[in-house]
Predict the structure of PhoX family phosphatase.
Amino acid sequence: MSDSKTNLSIDNSGVDPQTNFSLNPTFAAIVDSRMARRNFLKGSVGAAVAAMLGGSLAACSSSDDGEPTPVVPPVATTPLLGFTAVAAGRADAIVVPQGYSASAFLPWGTPLSGTYPPFLADATNTGAEQEQQVGMHHDGMHFFPIDTRNAGTSSTEGLLVFNHEYIDHNLIHPNGIDSMPRPAEQVRKEIAAHGVTVAHIQQNSDGNWQLVNNSPFNRRITGATPMELSGPVRGSSKVITKYSPDGSRTRGTLNNCGNGFTPWGTYLTCEENWAGYFVNADAEQPREHSRYGVPSSNGRYFWETATPTADVYQRFNAGSVAADATEDYRNEPNTFGWIVEIDPFNPDSVPQKRTALGRFGHEGIIFGKLEEGKPVVLYSGDDSTFEYIYKFVSAAPYYKNTAGGHLLNDGTLYVARFNDDGSGDWLALDINNTDFAAKAAAANVTFSDQADVLLNTRLAADVAGATKMDRPEWGAVHPDTGEVYFTLTNNSRRTDEQTDAANPRAANVTGHIIRWHERETQAAMAFDWDIFLLAGDVGTATPDTELTLTEDNHLASPDGLWFDKNGLLWIQTDMSGSQQGEGPFGNNQMLVADPVTRQIKRFLVGPTDCEVTGISATPDMKTLFVNIQHPGDRSAPGDFTSHWPDGGSNRPRSATVVITKDDGGIIGS
Ligand code: FEO
Ligand code: CA
Ligand code: CA
């Protein structure tokens, strides 16, 4: 979601609120990164990394800067990054390199299930119809080959699963918000436009992709779908609601931003800016609400006012309005802020909120490199100003034949501290960890049990002494080396005094990408990091690298991030409306980088006022799926700033884009 989205009647300014006012130390000065890297290479750490990378590092380290570059054994048979970079621009269209084609697919409103109600261009579809149509504002996405549970090699048929992050009143209704209190019918439609779409798709003999109508796999999961809480928070007194007096269930998933997927063939959707959907007007909010920015006057979309009222709408009032938690929804926000696991191959499956992975503004989630017999490791960023990067390590080891969701129910959550010498530490958020317990006691913070720690993940990370980051967005793990990359989209609020080696720029309006190597194993407690890329205008240099941005690759506000199987790093941008309108970067875009050479080329520019977010591909890398979110973001009812993808005078619609190479080759070559 753009961080400066404007709307005629809704205040969306709090979508990425700063709620971290903890006193965690920031480093006083920018560390000389050249020195830091020299130490990184020459010290024992560098030796350890060299050992881990083996001979290929030895080959790379003969280069003049000795960068500890990862190994990239290309799967592709054609040279990668062979295309001509797309120029920055402001066309109301998708622009891809010469020799590639792009077409819109599965836009908001596409008939998906049930009676397959057709999309009505004047936005008069009902809530019941929206429940059977593709949702709004596409975001994270994954293509599951139809044979995922077997070979997993199909590149012509599969389940495309994607998030719907939020809604735009000016586009979803004919006249935007036109009455208050909110009509329940409108609210029903808005809740239905959130969540996740599971679409069974296949490629025709002519090469075009289509939805498989009447497939039992086609499914909408919405902001009202019944879900279960699993892991340590299940049954906690703080998730008891009128709907679930035993604290085991909740309804819906909201503000689903980035995504992940598991090695066992399920989808992970991430709840990001969920706090704003609720209101708690009590004189004092519990820390489970206040630290996440639950509003005190009204919910972002006023769903709590839905009239005629019903329990499914009343739950957005999270105040203490009845005698106890079994009779109201004071705990409803505590059932949000989680990673949700969905089995797309079982249409009757109940989504599971995996509470062991922590509660915050989850941007996305990415598995570390898998090793048989070792724990699974997952990384997730908390996209709010000055928030943190987390890592989960499962208690049980991974074995391909028995892996499943149980691995996500039991383990240890850690938060990252980026030291100024290029080293880093994972700090356990575990009530039984003596270091953590001592820090909590010293800070006079009390947690009643591990469920309480997880419900208050941000507070626990404050206590642990994590490094405040410039809005962590997506992560990506190199398929061969296990090296982890994370986008830090921007942070205009960082002052000179608050800069540190990992967040080196004050008023960082263009963002950067950080990366690290775990020491020894993916589950290690220490790592070594450097900055891969400082984003910015032409001429922006990343210190102590040969990377200086040019017209071919200048960018701002990196957000989506993904490694393809060939080891290319795809970078998607989410610049605000003003940054797109006034800056040198043009519309939001997607670039692709070689992580070894740092060669970067712009591959795609999106239509007007959109965000490029969400990416996946077929196993043969010959079809790339990319999502275009909120084209026409600054539209008023009937006055649209984009008409993509339908053209003419049509209202804009978020959609997936299918990209192929005209010669049938590998995407990115
Ligand atoms: Fe939903 Fe942080 O972007
Ligand atoms: Ca995002
Ligand atoms: Ca963003």
User: Anything to note?
Assistant: The chain has a mean pLDDT of 91.
